[in-house]
Design goal:
This protein is an alpha/beta fold and 305 residues long. The chain has one domain. Helix content is 46%, strand content 20%. It is built from twelve helices and nine strands. A seven-stranded mixed beta sheet has the order 1-2-9-8-7-6-5. Strands 3-4 form a two-stranded antiparallel sheet. The longest helix has 26 residues. The two termini are 31 Å apart.
Length: 305
């Protein structure tokens, strides 16, 4: 993994409010980029994006048929730039989707069965539904389904967290889940990525429109990546214990605030809420604008090839 893992644990281990319930099947993680010559390593972060961009922008067959420069050019042509002049909400959302795909691949060892940016109507549309769709193969021919949310904000005050809760709640409606299931079973990537026929058929049976969504929920994971501009990171010059401790305290507080809101909103509104596993993933950056502007410039460069 290219980034420092500050913590990655059950939420119960870090919660600042032990009265919250249900608190099980909830996890929290914090990832940090490092520094060089007193500066946050923007170039390393951009390299991570472009190393993983094909996972979400190209189908499995396309990734296999292209290499290096051609791969990046093809991936860039599927990206949109229409959000580049908007304010905080929406701007950089596609970049966050790519980062989530990279973390899912490298940290959670997931298979990208639906590259969402590839499967959209055209390069100027937002990918529909979940921001990421993955399958994790578990021991004993078991598996889990991961429908991700990816956000990139200028800050993560409570109002921002509440908007994420609303987005997650909407994504868990039965019709939305059935639509995602249909997409997975109707694209070729699942056949190309999951070679064991018995496992593949078991997955398709679980995702079939004939199956009850209730049967899916114990296998359902919702990873929620929250990239955010951070004053602590902006003022830091090295990945030392002082910086780590400040981020640790801040992220403990934000994770607690998020799950407190989620439990209050979803516990009664989402059927079998306690069966679903949630992961909040926090990633601080010093300047959202600088990261997004560089990403947009790189995309335009490859689009023009």
């Amino acid at each position: 993994m290219e980034f420092e893992i500050l913590f990655d644990c059950a939420f119960s281990e870090i919660s600042l409010d032990q009265s919250l319930t249900p608190i099980d099947k909830k996890f929290s993680a914090s990832f940090l980029n490092d520094f060089e010559d007193g500066q946050w390593r923007y170039s390393k972060f951009q390299s991570f994006i472009w190393d993983n961009i094909a996972e979400t922008s190209l189908s499995c067959k396309e990734r296999e048929s292209l290499v290096n420069h051609s791969l990046l050019v093809a991936a860039a042509k599927n990206l949109r730039l229409t959000d580049s002049d908007k304010e905080d909400i929406g701007r950089g959302s596609e970049l966050a989707e790519i980062v989530l795909y990279g973390l899912m691949k490298h940290h959670y060892h997931a298979l990208p069965v639906v590259p969402k940016i590839f499967y959209k109507q055209n390069a100027q549309d937002n990918a529909k539904g979940a921001d990421s769709v993955h399958i994790v193969l578990e021991p004993n021919d078991s598996f889990s389904i991961w429908f991700g949310e990816a956000k990139f904000y200028n800050s993560i005050e409570d109002a921002r967290l509440l908007s994420i809760v609303t987005s997650v709640e909407n994504s868990l409606k039965t019709d939305k889940l059935k639509k995602e299931n249909a997409i997975i079973t109707n694209v070729r990537d699942i056949d190309d990525l999951i070679l064991e026929e018995s496992v593949r058929e078991k997955i398709k049976k679980t995702l079939s429109n004939r199956a009850s969504i209730d049967e899916l929920k114990p296998k359902l994971h919702i990873p929620i990546l929250i990239m955010h501009e951070c004053e602590i990171t902006k003022n830091a010059t090295q990945l030392d214990e002082k910086y780590k401790n400040e981020i640790l305290s801040f992220h403990y507080d934000r994770a607690t605030s998020y799950f407190k809101k989620q439990i209050k909103s979803l516990n009664n509104s989402v059927h079998l809420y306690s069966d679903i596993t949630f992961h909040i993933i926090l990633f601080p950056v010093p300047s959202k604008e600088k990261i997004v502007n560089k990403f947009v410039a790189n995309v335009q460069h490859y689009k023009d090839q």
